[in-house]
Amino acid sequence: MPTERAVNPVTGGSLLADRAYEEMKGAVLANRLRPGDSLSVPALAVQMGISRSPVREAVQRLIHDGLATHVPHRGAVVATVDLEDVRQLYTVREALEGLAARLATERLDATKVAELRALLEEHERLVASGYDEKRHIEMDMAYHRLIREVAGNTHLSAALENIHGKAHLALHSLWRSPEAARLAVEEHRRVFAAMTAGDAEAAERAAGEHIRRLRIRLSQAVAAGPEPRPDRSTVRPLPEEAAPES
Amino acid sequence: MPTERAVNPVTGGSLLADRAYEEMKGAVLANRLRPGDSLSVPALAVQMGISRSPVREAVQRLIHDGLATHVPHRGAVVATVDLEDVRQLYTVREALEGLAARLATERLDATKVAELRALLEEHERLVASGYDEKRHIEMDMAYHRLIREVAGNTHLSAALENIHGKAHLALHSLWRSPEAARLAVEEHRRVFAAMTAGDAEAAERAAGEHIRRLRIRLSQAVAAGPEPRPDRSTVRPLPEEAAPES
DNA sequence: CGACCCTATGTTGCATGCAATGTTTCGGGC
DNA sequence: GCCCGAAACATTGCATGCAACATAGGGTCG
User: Fold this and answer.
1) Which fold has domain A16-78?
2) A97, A211 in Cβ contact below 8 A?
3) Where is this region: Disordered (chains A, B) (predicted)?
4) Which residues, other chains included, contact A186 with Cβ-Cβ below 8 Å and sequence gap of 6+?
5) What is the pLDDT at residue A177?
6) Tag placement on chain B: N or C end, fewer CB within 10 Å?
7) Which tops the pLDDT comparison, A6 or B183?
8) How far apart are CA A211 and CA A196, in angstroms?
9) Who among B95, B103, B153 is closest to A96 (CB)?
């Protein structure tokens, strides 16, 4: 008995399944739900006050995205990414980001250059003025997103977006570092330079190099000592950002 | 009231949703369902003698795979791929197949070399002895599949598999050619040579080149005169391979 | 003859019931 | 105290009902 039904503005925007998906995905990417946490369809349905159908759909999408795995009779669990996964993920990402940078270089126009520069400079200011994990990640993602948008290849974008999601998940459980943020921006700057110089080959190399270095730094950090990860397996209420109880 | 229920051997093998998905995917890839054909959930459910739930799930997976698109209140339709899609698809595929070839080269062992050689030679025999569209496509897919299997990168495989599906769909609606089959095998042979020589860089280049040439040949063929494609939009019974009515 | 409204039809997304199946736990026997 | 069996429990996948909504088609009125 839903108190009120979300209206469907034709282009499925606020369908329950979508909202459930977005909410859960957000929780996973924001590390509010951690690898190993169980995703019980019935429990989540009750929590969100909706039926199991849309929740089931959302969970299946998460699984399809590689953000969760399906454990036969124990509900789905948030995916656990190990170091090998990360290596593989970044190997693919290296090739794809390189390609994106090359394509983007060939399609760059003044408007996009300005947007890229603005993003980059804001990111540089951010990193220079202390370390804000959340903001850094946002800026980083925005930068890469803009590049693949400029590249203008639907299928490349889709593939990259998948990789990004999983990579993001990996970062959460394995690593975080202020120093890395600085290096990331520096490397972004290098890709930007090659792109605005119109050198597609160099842009491709720089972008690939950026991801490769990311992978190496990540491996080293993990080898040195992985983040402690408290193991929990029970369902908790989705930790809200700040939720007035209704 | 299903006459009999498919048993679930834990590792979801013969679930109704899976079977529906496989059946529909097969129909699309085999061109029995063509771009533009409508996929009505209720109709398909009746056809297969199951309820709408698993069918709905299957259709959503197809959409997620890019093999179908969602038209708001008219049911889903088999995706239509135009030339631009193909170009984009093959651009990405070029990078990924190249990467796969490089990785595979680094992990090759005697067993895999033998398997590759066997596949290749069978393919050469096939092409030399006339043209069998179906068999050619099978061999081609098997070859690429084996390479990405040897490459041993889960996420790369997943990405490539997606691309493959859509590319396959594109080939059906746009193109077929005996000459192309010959060239494909020849280029496969070149990749194989580089791989067995242990030259990962050359393998990557050869694989990329293979896909790039494919893309070019495809574009030219389409420009010269696309295959006639009868437009149909009604739901027909899934054309069975050879179906005794029950 | 054309524009318009109104109904019939088809699709969609959600809720819910249910049987099969696997897991976990708890109690009893050794 | 430990092992084994059984029942309670949770999850799963499928079937089905249903109300909202959109489109198409036809009949009517101007």
Assistant:
1) Arc Repressor Mutant, subunit A (1.10.10)
2) yes
3) 219-246
4) none
5) 77
6) N
7) B183
8) 20
9) B95
